[in-house]
């Protein structure tokens, strides 16, 4: 039996190679002379190089894809959610298949009104799982991001702003979520294959019918010629 594999585009390398993971690093370097935890004490209302970053990611996805879903931690999750929202609204990646899933670890929404009006206009229909830490300073923003998706799976953990080590209960929830995703992916592919097979069958039947009509017409003409 063929084992289904999913293609992930990841903005962080906190996961092991399990399906097909593609890791992409930021194109822009972090500003110098900035404390690593400064972000905890300032509002995320200003973003630099955002349009260039979106363009870079869309080009990468188009060139190296297609990808089944996106996975990210912190800003990587925030940016991934933005791309998914933009795609669902037809703003970017119009020629790329719709993303099937999203995995967010400590992600949040962009807070620029012009972005929110587009990216989070409607609940995203992709399957999603959101890891939210009880001690994470982005706990509430992470919950707000999860609310932007239809039927999100929220996995809570007692840690802070980090990729958590999961207990047995959380691991079981995640595994069941992945199994459901794989089943849906397989059903979708089977459906597409069935539709394509049906189209091919219809083309074959049409060709046979056309050949039959041509054969009958030729026989009729031959009979007319003989009688003449």
UniProtKB/TrEMBL annotation:
SUPFAM superfamilies for the chain: alpha/beta-Hydrolases
The keyword Coiled coil is assigned to this record: yes
Domain Serine hydrolase: 39-170
Keyword terms: Coiled coil
Coiled coil (residue ranges): 194-221
Pfam families documented for this protein: FSH1 (PF03959)
Superkingdom, taxonomy of origin: Eukaryota
Coiled coil found in the keyword field: yes
InterPro entries, sorted: AB_hydrolase_fold (IPR029058), FSH-like_dom (IPR005645)
Name the UniProt record assigns to this protein: Serine hydrolase domain-containing protein
Organism field: Chenopodium quinoa
Lineage: Eukaryota, Viridiplantae, Streptophyta, Embryophyta, Tracheophyta
């Amino acid at each position: 039996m063929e084992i289904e594999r999913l293609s992930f585009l990841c903005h962080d390398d906190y996961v092991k190679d399990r399906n097909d993971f593609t890791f992409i690093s930021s194109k822009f370097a972090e500003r110098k002379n900035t404390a690593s935890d400064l972000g905890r004490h300032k509002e995320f209302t200003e973003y630099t190089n955002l349009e260039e970053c979106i363009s870079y990611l869309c080009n990468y996805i188009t060139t190296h894809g297609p990808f089944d879903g996106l996975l990210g931690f912190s800003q990587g999750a925030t940016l991934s959610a933005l791309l998914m929202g933009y795609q669902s609204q037809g703003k970017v990646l119009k020629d790329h298949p719709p993303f099937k899933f999203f995995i967010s670890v400590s992600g949040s929404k962009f807070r620029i009104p012009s972005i929110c009006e587009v990216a989070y206009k409607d609940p995203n229909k992709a399957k999603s799982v959101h890891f939210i830490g009880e001690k994470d300073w982005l706990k509430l923003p992470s919950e707000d991001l999860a609310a932007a998706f239809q039927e999100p799976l929220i996995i809570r953990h007692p840690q802070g702003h980090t990729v958590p080590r999961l207990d047995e209960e959380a691991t079981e929830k995640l595994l069941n979520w992945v199994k459901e995703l794989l089943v849906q992916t397989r059903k979708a592919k089977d459906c597409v294959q069935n539709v394509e097979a049906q189209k091919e069958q219809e083309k074959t039947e049409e060709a046979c019918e056309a050949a039959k009509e041509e054969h009958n017409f030729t026989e009729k003409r031959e009979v007319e010629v003989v009688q003449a």
